[in-house]
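Example record used in the benchmark description.
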Amino acid sequence: MKKQNIVLISAICLVIVFALGSYFYKTQQSEKLSFMARENASTFVRDYSLTLGSNDAKVYIVEFFDPACETCRDFHPFVKNLMAENQGKMKLVHRYAPFHPGSDYFVKILEAARKQGKYWETLEAMFNSQHIWASHHNPQPELIWQFLPQAGLNIEQIKNDMNDPEIAKHIAQDLADANALNVRQTPEFFVNGKPLPSFGYSQLRELVEAEIRANY
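Model output (structure tokens):
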């Protein structure tokens, strides 16, 4: 056999071995996370976790996100549309994964806004102005404050409430859960405990629709 053919066959074998290895790894990870969703649901949803949607929903989307993440901002309207299209059947769970340096500062603002019943309004204001206060993945806390009045917040109260030690504990717990679920970037989605087979809008929609067909 010619040397070139041996090299070609070896390369093909390596590709096949790699593909099979990746397939089995993803399958094992999916089975592991499904098991965790059944046996240890609190890893996905804590009692303090912020949720949106019907309590009777049979399809849960758990989203780990970072307020300073551009892709999280881009996915936000897409997830809202999914919720609107499947009203009553889905529940969204927000978990924090502030991976950008200093972005826990913005999580604290969100949680303080939550005390005023303005979480979603504040998140909208943050994402709409993110290109200014977190340009090029460089969060600058001092720039966010000019946009927060758009959410109808009591700013002085926010400055007091964001220092609540409970908020820091919740952030630490969310990061611990993200680590347990092998979340390495944001946004990361789990639908009824199942991770996306690969990242993308269509993959998220397909997984949501598959779970709705299976549960309704």
